[in-house]
């Protein structure tokens, strides 16, 4: 299995934080506790492999550098757009929690026409009619209400603020995932282009060897089997060229989907796949940087804090709440014949018996905290694994590049000597065919090892965090 198949072009580990929803409880005086739900849900890989295409396809091929591809991906990738919408929802949730603490003012104008039967109220006055009315009045009034003290609403607000912060960090983590997806796809296209060039060179070499074998056979200097071997080798190399061209076209389509190119838009990658070894990488330093930089880890910490605040909000339901209500308006037979009236009322509410509702809310919040902490601990272990695995892949690929390049030089020398021996008539072309196959394999190994080395840099940039900056440094050998 070659590394082109072992490392899919768009391998994603799209871990994200969902926007929490509020758990609903039975009716109560005061605000309901906000219990954070959801968790570290792994986003669908299809989201970061898709995009919203922008513009119309041009007949002119687009010149596309890696940085330009990343910029397009950040702008158009579906996964990042989805996380942006989740961030908007989290901010709306915070505003809703804030509204529970802010004053509410409403106004109303009422025109009333009524008739009253006093007997219904038990009133019997001699000489006074039992039925009063009909009569009418107009009431124009403003109503205001405000929470003076509600610890549950205050804790809910702080919890939703932490959730909004977690959603913002999740959107930042989405940028890293887009960088990983685009860079992996771009490197795959570069590797495919290298394979096409190598396969084309091998096909041309095989064609030249076949022509030489045919000429020698026609001249009676070699057997027909030599010509047949050369022809089979030529067809084999041509098949490899066709397969390499197909892989290149397919991976270019995949990259176009990731970065939002319009359907049918042709492009050419302008950057080259270079080998820049990284040195002095200490796993401890990288892990410390990852825990400080990784947006998904910081989002997990914010979600733990949000769950803890939700627990405090559940506890706060046992505290008294204070509220103020007031109204002022004019009432009379008409607005021209009216008088101002007002009412101001302050109240304090407290729980006497809640049938275990608060206790159940506390248990639900405790379970949520335990789940969040467990997910955060798992994510910490996942980051440790990703950093160490990326370093192993990077070191292994670096050794493979050196060995593959050395092997390519040896294979080239072997083919050259085999051709000379065949031309001199001291050997048949079995050696030539074997040497050409060895050269083709060596060329493939150089391309695969270089692809694996650069792909390991992409994985390391994602594992450490801040992939937009880290990737530039790593690809430059810093």
Structure in words:
With 478 residues, this protein is an alpha+beta fold. The protein has a single domain (3-475), classed as Up-down Bundle (Outer membrane efflux proteins (OEP)). The protein contains eleven helices and six strands. The chain has helices at residues 3-6, 45-49, 66-76, 78-99, 151-218, 224-259, 283-293, 295-315, 357-424, 430-464, 467-475, and strands at 62-64, 104-117, 131-149, 267-269, 321-334, 337-349. The strands form two sheets. A four-stranded antiparallel β-sheet has the order 2-3-5-6, with no helix packed on it. Strands 1-4 form a two-stranded parallel ribbon. A hairpin with a 2-residue loop joins strand 5 (321-334) and strand 6. Helix 5 runs antiparallel to helix 10 (430-464) and helix 8 (295-315) runs antiparallel to helix 9 (357-424). Mean pLDDT is 87; it is low at 1-44.
Strand and helix map with partners:
Blueprint lengths: L2 H4 L38 H5 L12 E3 L1 H11 L1 H22 L4 E14 L13 E19 L1 H68 L5 H36 L7 E3 L13 H11 L1 H21 L5 E14 L2 E13 L7 H68 L5 H35 L2 H9 L3
Parallel strand pairs: 1-4
Antiparallel strand pairs: 2-3, 3-5, 5-6
Helix pairs in contact: 3-5, 4-5, 5-6, 5-8, 5-10, 7-9, 8-9, 9-10, 10-11
Throw out a few tags for this protein.
478 residues; alpha+beta; Outer membrane efflux proteins (OEP); four-stranded antiparallel sheet; two-stranded parallel sheet; 11 helices; 6 strands
What can be said about the biggest beta sheet?
Answer: 4 strands, antiparallel
**Strand proportion:** 5-15%
What value does the Rg take, in angstroms? Answer: 37 Å
What is the CATH homology-level superfamily? Outer membrane efflux proteins (OEP)
Q: What structural category characterises the helix and strand content? A: alpha+beta
Instruction: Give the mean pLDDT.
Output: 87
Shape, per Cα inertia axes? elongated
| End-to-end CA span | 31 Å
- The helicity comes to 55-70%
**How are helices and strands ordered from N to C?**
HHEHHEEHHEHHEEHHH
| Total beta strand runs | 6
Give the neighbour order of strands across the main sheet.
2-3-5-6
């Amino acid at each position: 299995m070659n590394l082109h198949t072992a490392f899919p072009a768009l391998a994603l580990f799209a871990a994200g934080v969902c926007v929490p929803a509020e758990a609903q409880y039975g009716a109560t005086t005061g605000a309901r506790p906000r219990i954070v739900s959801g968790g570290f849900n792994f986003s669908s890989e299809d989201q970061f492999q898709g995009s919203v295409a922008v513009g119309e396809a041009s007949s002119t091929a687009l010149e596309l550098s890696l940085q330009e591809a990343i910029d397009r991906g950040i702008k158009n990738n579906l996964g990042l757009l989805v996380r942006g919408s989740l961030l908007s929802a989290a901010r709306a949730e915070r505003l809703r929690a804030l509204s529970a603490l802010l004053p509410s003012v409403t106004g109303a104008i009422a025109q009333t026409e009524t008739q009253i039967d006093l007997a219904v109220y038990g009133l019997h006055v001699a000489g006074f009619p039992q039925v009063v009315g009909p009569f009418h009045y107009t009431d124009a009034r403003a109503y205001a209400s405000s929470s003076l003290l509600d610890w549950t609403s205050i804790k809910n607000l702080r919890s939703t603020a932490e959730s909004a912060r977690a959603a913002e960090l999740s959107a930042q983590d989405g940028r890293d995932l887009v960088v990983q997806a685009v860079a992996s796809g771009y490197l795959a296209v570069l590797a495919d282009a290298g394979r096409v060039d190598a396969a084309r060179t091998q096909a041309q070499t095989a064609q030249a060897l076949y022509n030489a074998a045919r000429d020698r056979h026609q001249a009676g200097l070699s057997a027909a089997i030599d010509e047949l071997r050369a022809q089979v080798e030529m067809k084999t190399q041509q098949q490899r060229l066709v397969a390499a061209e197909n892989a290149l076209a397919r991976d270019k389509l995949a990259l176009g989907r990731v970065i939002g190119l319009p359907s049918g838009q042709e492009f050419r990658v302008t950057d080259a796949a270079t080998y820049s070894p990284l040195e002095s990488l200490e796993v401890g330093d990288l892990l410390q940087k990852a825990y400080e930089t990784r947006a998904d880890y910081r989002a997990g910490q914010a979600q733990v804090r949000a769950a803890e605040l939700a627990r405090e909000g559940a506890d706060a339901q046992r505290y008294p709440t204070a509220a103020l209500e007031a109204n002022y308006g004019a009432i009379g037979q008409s607005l021209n014949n009216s008088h101002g009236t007002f009412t101001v009322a302050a109240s304090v509410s407290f729980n006497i018996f809640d049938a275990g509702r608060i206790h159940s809310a506390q248990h639900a919040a405790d379970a949520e905290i335990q789940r969040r902490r467990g997910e955060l601990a798992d994510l910490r272990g996942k980051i440790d694994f990703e950093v160490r695995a990326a370093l192993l892949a990077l070191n292994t690929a670096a050794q493979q590049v050196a060995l593959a390049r050395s092997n390519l030089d040896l294979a080239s020398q072997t083919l050259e000597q085999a051709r000379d021996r065949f031309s001199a008539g001291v050997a048949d072309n079995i050696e030539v065919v074997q040497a050409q196959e060895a050269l083709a394999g060596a060329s493939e190994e150089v391309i695969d090892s270089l692809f694996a080395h650069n792909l390991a840099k992409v994985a390391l940039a994602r594992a450490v965090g801040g992939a937009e900056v880290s990737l530039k440094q790593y690809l430059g050998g810093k």
